[in-house]
Automatic annotation (TrEMBL):
<dbReference type="GO" id="GO:0033503">
    <property type="term" value="C:HULC complex"/>
</dbReference>
<feature type="coiled-coil region">
    <location>
        <begin position="289"/>
        <end position="337"/>
    </location>
</feature>
<keyword id="KW-0479">Metal-binding</keyword>
<feature type="coiled-coil region">
    <location>
        <begin position="231"/>
        <end position="265"/>
    </location>
</feature>
<dbReference type="InterPro" id="IPR058643">
    <property type="entry name" value="BRE1-like_CC"/>
</dbReference>
<comment type="pathway">
    <text>Protein modification; protein ubiquitination.</text>
</comment>
<dbReference type="Pfam" id="PF26095">
    <property type="entry name" value="CC_Bre1"/>
</dbReference>
<dbReference type="GO" id="GO:0016567">
    <property type="term" value="P:protein ubiquitination"/>
</dbReference>
<keyword id="KW-0862">Zinc</keyword>
<dbReference type="InterPro" id="IPR058642">
    <property type="entry name" value="BRE1A/B-like_dom"/>
</dbReference>
<feature type="domain" description="BRE1-like coiled-coil containing">
    <location>
        <begin position="68"/>
        <end position="157"/>
    </location>
</feature>
<dbReference type="GO" id="GO:0005634">
    <property type="term" value="C:nucleus"/>
</dbReference>
<comment type="similarity">
    <text>Belongs to the BRE1 family.</text>
</comment>
<dbReference type="GO" id="GO:0006325">
    <property type="term" value="P:chromatin organization"/>
</dbReference>
<keyword id="KW-0863">Zinc-finger</keyword>
<dbReference type="Pfam" id="PF26052">
    <property type="entry name" value="BRE1B"/>
</dbReference>
<keyword id="KW-0175">Coiled coil</keyword>
C-alpha cells in the first residue's frame, strides 16, 4: 500500500511523461532466422512506403506553392513589359517630334526671351526626386526628362520665330508701310500656312496610325513568345503524364500478378483443407475462406481503382494533346497576323511618302505661280538667267526623280504582298495536311488503347 501511495504522490507532483506508442505488428509463426529477416524487411518496406507517401504529399503542396509564385511572377512580368513598351514608344515619339524641329540650334535672344511657363516647367522637371530609383531606371527617367525639355524649348523657339516673322510681314517691325508686293507675299504666306497646318494634321493622323500598328505588332510578338513558352510547358506536362501513366500500368500489372497468385493459393487451400476436415474443423475453414475472400475483394477493388486512375490519366493526356495542338494553331495564326501587319505597314509608309511628295509638289507649283505673277512684266531671257528659276528647276527635277522612285517602291510592295498571300495559302495547305496526319495518329492510338484494355480484361477473366 505504501509503494502505491508513493507512486501516486510522485505522479501528482510531476507531469506524466509522453510515451511513443508503436502499433503492434503480428509477424506470425517463425521457424528460421531467414523468415524473421524477411518479415522484418517487409515491415521496413511498409514504413518506407508510408514515409514516401508523406513526402509525395509535401512535394505536391510545395509544387502548388511554386506554381502560384510563378503565376504571380508572370503577371508582374507582363505588367513590366507593357510599361517598358509604352515608355520606349513615348521616347521614340518624342525623338520623331524633335526631328521635325531644329532643336539643337537656338539664338541667344531666343534663349533669353523664353516664356515664364516654359522656364517654370523646365525647373519642375529638373527638381524631381530620384532617391527611390535605381541607376538604370534613373537613366531612363533622365533621358525622358531631357527629351521633354527639348520639345518644350523647340516649341517656344518656334513660337518666337513665328512672332518675329509676323511682325516683319505686317510692317510693324520697321515702322514703315509695306508695298503692294508685300501684300501679295503676306497673302501667299497665309495660304501656305493654312496648307502647312493641313499637312501637319494629316501627318499627325498618319503617325497615330503607325503608332497603333507598331504597338499591336509588338503585342502580338509578345503573345507569340508567351504561346511558345506555354507550348513548351505543355510538352513537359505531357512527358510527365506519360511517365506517370507508365508507372500506373506497371503497378496494374503487378497487382494483376498478385491477384492471380492469391487466386491460385486460395484454390490450393480449398483443395487441401476442403475435403479432409468436416466436423470440428469446419469453422476454421470458413474463417480462412472468409479471410481469403475479403483479401480477394480488396485486391479486386484496388485493381478497379488503378484501372479507373489509368483511364483518367489517359483522358488527361488526350486533353493535353488537344491543348497542345490548339496552342500550335494559335501560334501559327499569330505569325500570319504579324506578317500581314508588316505588309500593311510597308504599304502605309509608301502611301504616306507619296502623299507628302504630292503636297510638296503642290507647294512648289504655288510658289511658281506667285513668282510668275510677280515678275510677269520681265522678259523671258532675264527670268531664265535668274538663280531662283534655276533653283526651282533643279528642285522640280529632284522631286520628279523621287516620285519615280516611290512608284517603283510601290510596285515592289505590291509584289511582296502577292508573294506573302501565296506563302499564306501554302502554309494553310501544310496545316491541313498536318491536321489529317494528327487525326489518323489519334485514331490508331485509340485503337491501340481499346485493344490494350480488351487484353487486360481478358487477362483478368
Amino acid at each position: 500500500m505504501s509503494k502505491r501511495a508513493a507512486e501516486g504522490g510522485d505522479s501528482g507532483s510531476q507531469p506524466p511523461i509522453k510515451k511513443v506508442q508503436f502499433e503492434p505488428i503480428f509477424i506470425g509463426s517463425i521457424s528460421t532466422l531467414e523468415e524473421m529477416d524477411m518479415k522484418v524487411l517487409q515491415f521496413q518496406n511498409k514504413k518506407l512506403a508510408q514515409r514516401l507517401e508523406q513526402r509525395h504529399r509535401v512535394e505536391a503542396e510545395l509544387r502548388q506553392r511554386i506554381e502560384q509564385l510563378e503565376k504571380r511572377q508572370m503577371q508582374d512580368d507582363a505588367v513590366l513589359n507593357v510599361v517598358n513598351r509604352y515608355w520606349n514608344q513615348l521616347n521614340e515619339d518624342i525623338r520623331v517630334l524633335l526631328q521635325r524641329f531644329d532643336a539643337e540650334t537656338a539664338d541667344e535672344s531666343e534663349n533669353k526671351n523664353e516664356s515664364e511657363a516654359t522656364t517654370s516647367f523646365l525647373m519642375q522637371l529638373s527638381s524631381w526626386d530620384k532617391e527611390e530609383l535605381d541607376d538604370k531606371l534613373a537613366n531612363r527617367v533622365q533621358v525622358s526628362k531631357r527629351a521633354v525639355s527639348k520639345v518644350v524649348q523647340a516649341f517656344d523657339r518656334l513660337s518666337q520665330r513665328n512672332e518675329k516673322i509676323t511682325l516683319a510681314l505686317k510692317g510693324e517691325f520697321d515702322g514703315e508701310e509695306a508695298p503692294n508686293i508685300d501684300e501679295v507675299v503676306r497673302r501667299a504666306n497665309a495660304e501656305i500656312q493654312m496648307e502647312n497646318r493641313n499637312l501637319q494634321a494629316i501627318n499627325i493622323q498618319l503617325h497615330e496610325k503607325y503608332h497603333t500598328i507598331s504597338l499591336k505588332m509588338s503585342e502580338l510578338q509578345d503573345t507569340i513568345t508567351g504561346k511558345d513558352t506555354l507550348a513548351a510547358e505543355l510538352r513537359n506536362q505531357v512527358d510527365d503524364l506519360q511517365y506517370e501513366l507508365n508507372k500506373v500500368r506497371a503497378r496494374n500489372d503487378k497487382l494483376e500478378h498478385h491477384l492471380g497468385e492469391a487466386i491460385e493459393k486460395l484454390k490450393a487451400f480449398q483443395q487441401i483443407h476442403g475435403t479432409d476436415e468436416k466436423g470440428s474443423n469446419k469453422p476454421n475453414t470458413l474463417v480462412a475462406s472468409s479471410v481469403s475472400q475479403t483479401k480477394l475483394e480488396d485486391l479486386q477493388r484496388e485493381l478497379e481503382e488503378t484501372r479507373e486512375l489509368a483511364n483518367n490519366r489517359l483522358q488527361e493526356l488526350d486533353k493535353l494533346h488537344q491543348q497542345h495542338r490548339d496552342a500550335l494553331k494559335e501560334v501559327e495564326k499569330l505569325k500570319m497576323d504579324v506578317s500581314s501587319l508588316v505588309s500593311i505597314h510597308m504599304f502605309v509608309v509608301t502611301s504616306v511618302e507619296c502623299k507628302l511628295m504630292s503636297y510638296a509638289i503642290n507647294i512648289l507649283m504655288l510658289y511658281l505661280l506667285l513668282l510668275i505673277s510677280c515678275i510677269r512684266q520681265l522678259p523671258e531671257s532675264v527670268i531664265v538667267e535668274t538663280t531662283e528659276y534655276k533653283c526651282l528647276q533643279s528642285q522640280f527635277s529632284v522631286l520628279y526623280n523621287e516620285s519615280m522612285q516611290l512608284k517603283t517602291q510601290l510596285d515592289d510592295a505590291r509584289q511582296q504582298l502577292q508573294s506573302s498571300k501565296n506563302a499564306h495559302l501554302r502554309h494553310i495547305e501544310m496545316m491541313e495536311a498536318k491536321r489529317r496526319i494528327d487525326g489518323t495518329e489519334e485514331t490508331t492510338r485509340r485503337m491501340y488503347t481499346t485493344g490494350r484494355r480488351f487484353g487486360s480484361i481478358t487477362k483478368g477473366v
